[in-house]
Amino acid sequence: MRRILSSLALCLAVPVLLAAPPKEARKALSSGLDLAGMDRSVAPGDDFFAYANGGWFKRTEIPADRGSCGVWSDVEERTNRRTAWLIQAAARAKAPAGSDLRRISDFYTSFMDEKAIEARGLAPLQPTLQAIQGIKDRRGLAHYLGSTLRADVDVLNNTNYQTENFLGLWVAQDLDEPSRYSPFLLQGGLGMPDRSYYLEPGESMATVRAEYLAHVAAMLKLAGLPDPEPRAAGVVDLETRMAKVHASREESGDVVKGNNHWHRTDFVKRAPGLDWEAFFTGAQLLQPNVFVVWQPSALAGLSDLVAEIPLETWRDYLTFHALQRRAPVLPKAVESQHFAFHEKVLNGVSKPRERWIYGVEQTNQALGEVVGKAYVAKYFPSTEKARAQKMVTNILAAFRARIERLDWMSEATKAKAIAKLSTLKVGVGYPDHWHDYSGLKIVAGDAFGNAERAERFDYLRNLRKLGTPVDRSEWVMTPQTVNAVNLPVMNALNFPAAILQPPFFDPRRPMVMDYGAIGSVIGHEISHSFDDSGSLFDATGKLSNWWTPDDLKHFEASAAQLVKQYDAYEPLPGLHINGKQTLGENIADVAGLAAAYDAYRLSLQGRDVPLVAGLTGDQQFFISFAQSWRVKMQAPQIRQRVLTNGHAPAVQRTFTVRNLDAWYATFLVKTGEALYLSPENRVKIW
């Protein structure tokens, strides 16, 4: 959730020496309101984003190595620099062999050794390429596809609904029996971000598809395959056919439709094109008898393609994806080609970021909780954890009071909502216990092998959860992640340490600003337990309808009102937000901001908030919220976000304020101004 100073220098941050003390990174971010970044010539009621951020937006240029810049990217960069310093400190200290600190040191330094990666060429990938060329029949293809299954999707948190692999696995609490884990299978197989990139008409998408075809051909050429152009055409045609059978992002967000339990014997009947026993053997899924198939029609359609498409095309497809998946640890030619499409074309980025940034990302992905343990020890004192927990307590209390005051909800439904709120498990900063990485082998100088082993280690760790008691305290984010998450099946929240820092959360400024920034984030995540998906789960995490018919009808009517509101937003000419696709996040934004506002007012206990530059406490609250969503994005990245993400773009998220009565009184918003909504059109769900 982003930051609050303005200065062009913060967005175009000049790299500092990573060997510098961590306190040097601390100076890079400021706190409080960025008055110079505002544009007070804009009426708040016409464009609240421009009012709060217009000065910054006009002065700021997006760096050539990014598709966007703003508060969140600034905080992420600061966190990355801190993390890189910790990793390098472990290397300088020569941590003992086999220790966790040695693992992160060896992983990172191996990734950073570009000369060694270049010298090895494609040799590390050869066993994979040979295995692909060794596929001689459909059974062999099924076995190989199973071997690519990975635990890399998370549909219920709305962070993904597909995987680049043929299928994706998610091990989580069963929706019908939350006391046990189930394996969830999800659609996959696409090299571009979403089915719409293959199917949507229009010149812009046609251009992207032409660039993608050239990218696939270039990668196949780098793999040493003859006739790369016609082979690439076959691969793109295969992926286009995959896209046609994929469920849409909107369809995939329907939890009820996704809750399909298939026994092992059902697969051969319902999706007969694939040799499922060979697939499950390759995936090491020998024990589970029941799976949750999230997109049944997609699974059946993908299975048909396994039977229909020539093996040669499948081998070309798998070769392309093998290079694509491991591009960061392959020679520069492969990495550069990957960047040329995935960053230049899809995100509008003109040059790569410094390699150490990718090194931090890769290390976090492979050894996230090892890095996280070091991060919180250095940067997240117990006093900050206690302060954050107090804010959580206040916002929970405010949310409960809002439920109790609802005039449209029956007492029976209120009681169940409050029971759910009362059992919500809130994790602040870091998990109660850490993952054990002692079984992960990291070899100095083997960047490719380290990435392969780390990915497989995580996959097998997830498989081992099957048949064990459900752990509601498990985190799905690392402490050094600048984000937060609600886990509706576990009825739990994660607020990582990295988001609990300036400018979202800072003891040096008035508390009202914290409530506007991080408070709205906390309220947002609490509200996810009661959005269009979260409200389908009861206090135990079971998929259960706990609403009376009349209450549900009112909720759905308000949700439809919010869908219509967001459908009208047009981030780019001709490109509208999909209000249904973003509904859960929009509900959470509205309810979360309202709860944070109530909590801030309650925290005053009758006291007044001192003026800051002539701004009242309520004005400070709303401006802090809007400045926390400060961002400037390249057009390709805006397009990708609208098409593929469950969140609306940041600019439109600041318009959440138009649903709160207090905002109108605070800024004297009048009828006729662009954001004005008549009282009956202001959405109030919780």
| Main sheet overview | 4 strands, mixed
Distance N to C terminus: 22 Å
Q: Uncertain regions: pLDDT < 50 for 5+ in a row?
A: 1-28, 155-159
Q: What value does the average pLDDT take?
A: 92
Radius of gyration, whole Å: 25 Å
Overview of the structural elements:
With 686 residues, the chain is mainly α. It folds into 2 domains: 8-71 and 380-433 and 470-681, Collagenase (Catalytic Domain), CATH 3.40.390.10; 123-329, Neutral endopeptidase, domain 2. The chain has helices spanning 8-11, 22-26, 48-59, 71-92, 100-112, 114-120, 126-133, 138-147, 196-199, 203-222, 228-245, 249-252, 255-258, 264-270, 276-282, 296-308, 311-325, 332-347, 355-379, 382-405, 411-422, 447-463, 511-527, 549-567, 583-604, 617-628, 635-644, 650-653, 661-667; strands at residues 68-70, 167-173, 181-187, 261-263, 290-293, 425-429, 485-487, 492-496, 631-633. 52% of the residues lie in helices and 6% in strands. It has a 4-stranded mixed β-sheet. It has a 3-stranded mixed β-sheet with strand order 6-8-7, with helices on one face. It is built from 29 helices and 9 strands. It is globular. The longest helix has 25 residues, at 355-379. The two termini are 22 Å apart. Helix 11 crosses helix 17 (311-325), helix 20 crosses helix 25 (583-604) and helix 23 (511-527) packs across helix 25.
Please provide a brief summary of the model.
The chain has helices at about 10, 20-25, 50-60, 70-90, 100-110, 115-120, 125-135, 140-145, 195-200, 205-220, 230-245, 250, 255-260, 265-270, 275-280, 295-310, 310-325, 330-345, 355-380, 380-405, 410-420, 445-465, 510-525, 550-565, 585-605, 615-630, 635-645, 650-655, 660-665, and strands at about 70, 165-175, 180-185, 260-265, 290-295, 425-430, 485, 490-495, 630-635.
